[in-house]
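Here's what a typical entry looks like (Prefoldin subunit):
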Amino acid sequence: MGRNGGRVHTYNTEGLVANGDFETAPSNGFPSEAISDGPTEIPSWITKGRVELVSSGDKVSGGMILIVPRGLKAVRLGNDAEISQELTVEKGSTYAVTFSAARTPPDIVQLQGWDPYSISFEAEKDKVPLIFTNTGMEDDPECGPIIDDIAIKKLVTPDQPKDNAVVNSGFEFGPWMFQNVSLGVLLPTNLDEETSPLPGWMVESNRAVRYIDSNHFAVPEGKRAVELVSGKEGIISQMVETKPDKLYCLTFSLGHARDKCKEPLAVMAFAGDQAQNYHYTPDSNSTFQVVSVNFTAKAERTRIAFYSVYYNTRTDDMSSLCGPVVDDVRVWFSGSSRNEVLVLLGLGPAFWAYLIILVLSWDL
């Protein structure tokens, strides 16, 4: 037992961590007000510094109304505050942690700026601590980040298909997604394909891309896809196996997520030394089109990559970033048939506070 209720938890490798939605009541009940002078008890979590349980509908930071993405409760971290929890995992396996985050700036009336994010790590031990820390120093201590809906998923890399050099070509293998949250999941920079939250792929730029599902977006193939929401600063890439001097074809589906994203939409596609941009051309019968790039491999591994040519926003909200959708990526011989983790997050469109998430191995 750790202070304020922290303990080791064993659970399924998919879904909420223990009290990951902060809906479990403390032993003395939930605080009657959003801000409490004493230390906050949060079941299953260890707290340090100014940690507050807040509720949907609360007025926070100068009269703002708080809206929680799921349920009624969330946690706000003051300057240098943190929450932590020990997890029991499988040594050597890769996991993705998904969470929702927002900030409470003093200049808006209603707080709805929630975004889900995901980071990944390889478990070096069978017990690891998950730590959320606010490293920012706000002028107003009530303006710290708010965290909710913390979930974990064990990642599995799919087998290499026989007729396609691309791993996880349809993006079907990825982090945990909440079925009733319609925002997708933002994937920050990750330059290690071995521990990426999107197996096989890397986010190699300084802005995030959005992982989307067919429950809330138009997806060209299967149930998952990637929306390129950050212009040239949001790049996904993969190194695929090739044979030098052989001619290959890169094909992919380019589409519109049906999220009111303002056109034009266009993708810059890279395959070895070839680069070409493709504009999405709407078709009344489909939300996507299949495009291709021919290239000659120069080495045993060839980089393929995609980014959005434009910085797009939604027509109903000019501040919400969006972009073209990429899916069903294939690389094949043109002559063949086509049948301790530390992340510092300046977390993108709706999250301006500095937040550190630590997943470290402990010798227990």
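The domain at 185-333 is CATH 2.60.120.260 (Jelly Rolls).

More examples are in the samples folder.
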